[in-house]
Amino acid sequence: MTTAWFVAFRIATMISQIGYHTAEITALRADFKQAWQFQMEGGELSLIRRGVAQRNSPIEVDEKTLTQMSGYADNLKEFYRTTGAKMNANELRFAIYENFGQALIETLCIPLGLNLSECIVIACAVAKGVAKGHPVEDVV
After folding, report:
1. CA–CA separation, 53 vs 133, rounded Å?
2. What's this model's pTM, rounded to 2 decimal places?
């Protein structure tokens, strides 16, 4: 009888710990989503400040940057069509980072001197097929 009581007590303790940790994980996920959104919005604002993009709806990226992205545009558009269209903006940006992050660093970030969040914002616009080229001097 004592062993059965002890086992039942241990199971109840583990279940309560799982509930506690589940709540912690949920809170961490919310914090991560907020931090990710903040980072991506910072990347968008940085692109606008640098004159690489201008804020319209959608964001417009300069022709030089779009040309640099041309090697990945089809892959990004296909990714969006098959996977990303079901995602919200933050999920899409994170999925692009996971799937294309290293390629973005090598083909866009380093050659153009952009940070990764800026490159992800550009890649997201290209994936959606909404990045419109404009001459850099047209940016106010």
Report:
1. 9
2. 0.68
